[in-house]
Amino acid sequence: MDRRIFGLETEFGLNYVPSDGRRLTPEDAARHLFKPVVSWGRSSNVFLENGSRLYLDVGSHPEYATAECDQLKQLIAHDRAGEVFMLDLVDQAEDQLAEEGHEGRIYMFKNNVDSAGNSYGCHENYLIPRKIEFKRLADMLIPFLVTRQLLCGAGHLITDEGETKYVFSQRADHMWEGVSSATTRSRPIINTRDEPHADAEYHRRLHVIVGDSTMSETTQLLKIGATDLVLRLIESGEIYHDLRLENPIRSIRQISHDFTGQTVVRLMGGDEPTALQIQWILFESVKEFIARHGAHHDQVDTVLELWERTLNAVESQDFSLIDKDIDWAIKHKLLMGYARKNSLELSSPRLAQLNLTYHDIDPQRGLFHLLKRRGLASSVVTDAEILQAVNNPPATTRAALRSKFIRAARANGRRYSADWVHMKYEDGPGGIVLCKDPFATSNPQIDELIELMGQQQ
């Protein structure tokens, strides 16, 4: 595909900490958080004026789904916009709680596991051609996704057989299947539910639910960018290595727990490469593919450089090569440095607290944001680009139409509903506009509907 639609769905961890002893359940905290949303949107599941979706997911997890994006930096800016929206809801909820006599703080975390061991996800969406045989694509992509945690895991402290250790991924230990239509019950690497949010005759949506949530923008760039490149290689039919895994779920756990990248992975054909070798094979294949066909956007060289540098860092065990760019390496430096300075074991509760606080999205509290202010974590987008994404949709996708419709309906005080492909005016005749093209930025039917909303009293 010359252009691809990308989307990210991030579930946030939510915790209320009282200072007056009056506790709130997660359900109560979430209800307060979404009260202003329900007030104007009549629901806890709404689309915003920047084209994104904000809703309350299973388990009282606030979730933000970016608008349709067709550029990597655009996607990163819109993902960061989700943090801004969530922080605004936190401020409003804390004010409301204070008025009700509660003294406490709401904390939101961009991570993937809570203290009780429950996992919540960061789901990636990629528009792919319908003509591609989905099973073949999944078989060829899963080896990359299983070993991708070397590139873009968020890092985590776990206790395994009485020993606390630092691992690549928060999400890996919570995956149970390679491919499935479920998202919570069996938690597969790839979800097969066929909801393209586009013309199903031509497109399908690849729904990847194995990835860790990322605080680092450079990690996000590598995660989405490298996956896009591997998909392009698969779509071209030019991939010549059979890397199908004998047991993806066993492998994903073993790889996460081995910080050397030398975990041996048994393939269906009987070969036993290491996780690092699988990544090198795919990296070199992608690099050769790009050399033959050229880059399709201006971030390809950046993605390739970061991919190669990260593999070199794991291979050499010199994490200083990437300790400003890759979440697991940034956090590893933070935790190990603190442990050495204070003579702490990895099992120390203080390190567990730092491990969590790294993911606090509040810029004044979160350790990642502190590191970023000190020049110890890299950026991809500017504050101005994030603010632009908060206030405006991507101008190059269908999100621009959704935004235009929602803005007009709200400006005219009209009742409306919208989802990824439908826009409906509910206060009068006019019906529903169906927009199946995710690349569309103009639609005469929507213009007519907006004109109708402005005319009717």
Account of the protein in words:
The chain has helices spanning 26-41, 72-99, 134-147, 149-152, 217-236, 248-257, 275-293, 300-316, 327-342, 349-357, 367-373, 383-391, 399-411, 444-455, and strands at residues 6-11, 13-18, 45-47, 53-57, 61-65, 104-109, 122-129, 156-160, 163-167, 177-180, 188-191, 203-208, 416-418, 422-425, 432-434. The protein is an alpha+beta fold and 457 residues long. The protein has a domain at 398-455. An eight-stranded mixed β-sheet has the order 3-4-5-1-7-12-11-10. Strands 13-14-15 form a three-stranded antiparallel β-sheet, covered by helices on one side. Strands 2-6 form a two-stranded antiparallel ribbon. A hairpin with a 6-residue loop joins strand 14 (422-425) and strand 15 (432-434). The mean pLDDT is 94. It catalyses: ATP + [prokaryotic ubiquitin-like protein]-L-glutamate + [protein]-L-lysine = ADP + phosphate + N(6)-([prokaryotic ubiquitin-like protein]-gamma-L-glutamyl)-[protein]-L-lysine.
What key phrases describe this protein's structure?
single chain; three-stranded antiparallel beta sheet; alpha+beta; eight-stranded mixed beta sheet; 15 strands; nucleotide-binding
- Sheet of most strands: 8 strands, mixed
User: How many H/I helices?
Assistant: 14
Measured by DSSP, the beta-strand proportion falls in: 15-25%
Supply Rg: 22 Å
Shape verdict: globular
| Elements, N to C (H/E) | EEHEEEHEEHHEEEEEHHHHHHHHHEEEH
Q: Total strand count, please?
A: 15
Q: What is the share of helical residues?
A: 40-55%
Oligomer: single chain
Mean pLDDT: 94
